[in-house]
């Protein structure tokens, strides 16, 4: 088939596959005996990003088309003025996370809500933007019963590959509002023999590349990008991994 005859065929095939992806799926291996006792699957994690773009208009365009790596999207985009845009329904799988994992979650896009913040990565996050993020996090964690500790940065799940939302993101402020995790002020030093690297894994970081995981952790909790753990890190990680996850207490099962 010549190249120009192949193009319409490929387009047709890709249109057909796209249609299939959205069609109701009934497995031909099984007899369909429908039950009405179900609802939509719920996300269990929120991933925060910065857009690293120059304007909200550019971000809205990219998140509805593609960037240099391919087609991308997120569920939400928050402007510096605090306006919240939604691009993908909460129950659908947006394409914001890419390769990586967090704890036992290997397909982060399937499990998460992605929130992009209009920010170039070098500027402080605007106050109205952070205020809107807190309102949105409160809404999402309540409606989907996402544990309030389950708020991570893109860099947490893709260490070495991604660095957003970056060193300027106000994780401590989020923690004060009850989101994400932060060590307790003045918590005791870690006991002798405490394995700080292992604690990073307990938090959720993938340890395939330990130096990259440490850099991602340091960026979030200490605002630098060192790749070795010191005694202060041991104290922080001991605090983060040995205190009860208070946020799970208000999560109730159906
Ligand atoms: Zn990102």
Topology:
Elements lengths: L2 H20 L22 E6 L5 H7 L3 E2 L2 E2 L4 E3 L5 E3 L21 H4 E6 L9 H18 L6 E3 H4 L13 H6 L19 H8 L6 H12 L9 H12 L12
Parallel strand pairs: 1-6, 1-7, 4-6
Antiparallel strand pairs: 2-3, 4-5
Helix pairs in contact: 7-9
Bound molecules: zinc ion.
Description of the structure:
This protein is of the alpha/beta class and 254 residues long. The protein folds into two domains: 45-182, Peptidoglycan recognition protein-like (Lysozyme-like, 3-Layer(aba) Sandwich); 196-245, no CATH class. It has nine helices and seven strands. It has helices at residues 3-22, 56-62, 108-111, 127-144, 154-157, 171-176, 196-203, 210-221, 231-242, and strands at 45-50, 66-67, 70-71, 76-78, 84-86, 112-117, 151-153. Strands 5-4-6-1-7 form a five-stranded mixed β-sheet, sandwiched between helices. Strands 2-3 form a two-stranded antiparallel ribbon. Strand 2 and strand 3 form a beta hairpin. Helix 7 (196-203) crosses helix 9 (231-242). It is globular. Mean pLDDT is 89; it is low at 9-20 and 245-254. Zinc ion (ZN) binds at residues 49, 154, 162, 164.
């Amino acid at each position: 088939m010549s190249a120009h005859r192949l193009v319409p065929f490929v387009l047709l095939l890709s249109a057909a596959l796209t249609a299939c992806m959205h069609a109701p799926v009934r497995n031909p291996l099984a007899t369909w005996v429908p039950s009405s006792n179900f609802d939509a699957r719920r996300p269990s994690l929120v991933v925060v990003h910065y857009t690293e773009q120059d304007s909200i208009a550019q971000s809205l365009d990219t998140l509805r088309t593609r960037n240099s790596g391919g087609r991308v999207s997120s569920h939400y985009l928050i402007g510096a003025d605090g306006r919240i845009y939604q691009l993908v329904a909460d129950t659908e799988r947006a394409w914001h996370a890419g390769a990586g994992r967090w704890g036992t979650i290997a397909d982060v896009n399937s499990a998460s809500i992605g929130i992009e913040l209009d920010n170039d990565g070098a500027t402080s996050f605007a106050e109205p933007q952070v205020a809107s993020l807190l309102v949105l996090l409160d809404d999402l964690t309540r409606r989907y019963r996402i544990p309030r500790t389950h708020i991570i940065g893109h860099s947490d799940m893709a260490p070495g590959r991604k660095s957003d939302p970056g060193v300027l993101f106000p994780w401590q402020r989020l923690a004060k509002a009850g989101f994400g995790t932060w060590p307790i002020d003045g918590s005791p030093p870690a006991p002798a023999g405490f394995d700080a690297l292992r604690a990073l894994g307990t938090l959720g970081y993938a340890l395939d590349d330990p130096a990259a995981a440490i850099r991602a952790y340091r960026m979030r909790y200490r605002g630098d990008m060192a790749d070795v753990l010191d005694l202060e890190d041991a104290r922080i990680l001991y605090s983060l991994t040995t205190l009860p996850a208070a946020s799970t207490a208000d999560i109730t099962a159906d």
